[in-house]
Amino acid sequence: GIQVEQSPPDLILQEGANSTLRCNFSDSVNNLQWFHQNPWGQLINLFYIPSGTKQNGRLSATTVATERYSLLYISSSQTTDSGVYFCAVYGNKLVFGAGTILRVKS
Amino acid sequence: GAGVSQSPSNKVTEKGKDVELRCDPISGHTALYWYRQSLGQGLEFLIYFQGNSAPDKSGLPSDRFSAERTGGSVSTLTIQRTQQEDSAVYLCASSTGQGAYGYTFGSGTRLTVV
Q1: Weakly modelled stretches of chain A, pLDDT under 70
Q2: Pick from A33, A97, A99: which is nearest to B103 by CB?
């Protein structure tokens, strides 16, 4: 099956810093999504991005499908950005990476 | 409804008992998924329903786990003879179709087997 690897596994930032999270996947996919799981466990869909670049406020994402990776950029991080960021790819079902745990300190 | 609703939000059960977890998807969403998240882990796929097609049960960890979806809407995940390793958060998601944009997750059911 499709393998999804995320890096780094965890990250500690000072408030205001920028960061880049990476997702590598092993096969061609039809769909790639980034999720944020907040400290209360709720999963929020951030981006649907099978290819190209999208931006939403301080967050942006880029997927290079031909090279099988996606990047999530967080700029001017805030404490509310803390949580786990998951990349998930769709072959015939949504397969999740292990996530990146982000802690933003004030 | 406005979102994916799961019940109960928390369930504590004794080892060996059966439990039923409920998921009410977003109205009109034809696809429904169950995932399991153990403490500090990623999401493990369990089962997928799409319309009237036969469900994809490839992620169910054992024959103690089963799920059904009635009338193309509400789904129930049943775990028989619960074991301590079944303790996890069980998450349900729905979407408008296979691979479609807009996976929406419920808040999950936290199952603790004692």
Answers
A1: none
A2: A33
